[in-house]
Amino acid sequence: MKTKLILVIFLLSFITSFAQKSTPEVRQNNKIVGKNYITGSDINANEYVFNTRIHHIYIDTISGYTTLQLRKLSKNGKTLALNGLIVVYDLINNKVKWTKNIDYSLCSLQQHNNILFFSKGNKLYRLNIEDGTEMWQIKSDMYYVNPKKQIGLGYKYTGLTGNIHTLEGINLETGKTLWEKELNRGYGWNQIIKVNDDDLLIVAGGLHFINMENGLGWDYETKTGKKDYTETVAKNVGGLALGLLTGTYVTSTGSNLVRDIVSNVLQDSSTIYMASKEALVSINKNKGSINWSFPLPEDLTSKSSLIINDSSLVLINKGNAYFNNKLIDFGEPFLVNVNKTTGEQYYFKSLKETKSPIVDFKIENDSLTLIFKNQIANYNLQGANQGYSKIFEEEAYGTLNFFVGNQLYSKQDDANL
Questions:
Q1: CA dihedral 99, 105, 107, 109 (to 10 degrees)
Q2: Which residues are bridge partners to 30 per DSSP?
Q3: In whole angstroms, what is the distance from residue 364 CA to residue 287 CA?
Q4: Strands across the sheet with 358-364, in order?
Q5: Radius of gyration of the chain, Cα coordinates, nearest whole angstrom
Q6: pLDDT over 50 at 6, yes or no
């Protein structure tokens, strides 16, 4: 079966003389945007020009609809207008399906494939993608959506005095509650891992194994943040709350929360490995029971990365964490190597002499290379013995940020090379 690639270009017009209309003006053009040097043919694109600035866009490739949020700038071009327009446009038939006004100071829009949510205050509405009508409404914050199973996960809103940690499974076709479960979100949600079609692993104040159909599973609770950290709050400037990430609405509660003091999650057929502020643990995947737990120094532990090296686990503690959405220095960098089966320590190596957090790392065989703000250092994973180290003066080079990877090319003078 042959597939056809269609390019769609949406132009953003900043003309302020147009008034906001319930049905926006749309101009469609076909234009050549490139050339296929293999076939020699032109690459064509459909161009759609709107008379109002496009604030956000979502394209559902299954239905062929695109959802646009139109929002003007102020006359001086420095601020955004509070009011805008939601437009669902049919790319196949080239017509506006429907429109809806939106007040950005009170409302927001989420979309997952053809599932469209409109939030206003503490109410969540599902809108019909075909005509914009309300299918149902509930009082909940939607955190995760599985379009295939038509199930969402959200926190039930029960008022200022109600329980803000009641997670519920929601039937997305009816808006009805399938199940309820207490899942503390005091440290925010860090990650969602899809185990299979039915089960999820949620990293939030620990690790939670949940069946989406019935809410059953197990819980491992631990600290993945630090609250009311006044020293950090005084020294660092906070940012805005995080928004949507691949279907997950990640939030933190409290302005004084230092979060993301947790590692990535590693798993095989029977075991899960994870590090938090308190410990590096091995968990039985089916039962949720602890195989072993290796305690970590709470005053030093921060955001970390966990890797498997033969029969051992290596924890790279980076020495930073997040305060709101700002990455800050937190704790101290160190390396820990333990036996993957028993949790027995092979070594613990402090890297505090660098006086800087780890910003990136690279592993080749048994060699670990770390990047700090102004230094590169190499260590042997087996014994943490240092190989080489080089300091880069910040005044001359700036700060180091990351490895560039394999997508870096240098221009050669000889065209035949």
A1: 70
A2: 46
A3: 35
A4: 358-364, 367-372, 375-380, 386-391
A5: 25
A6: no
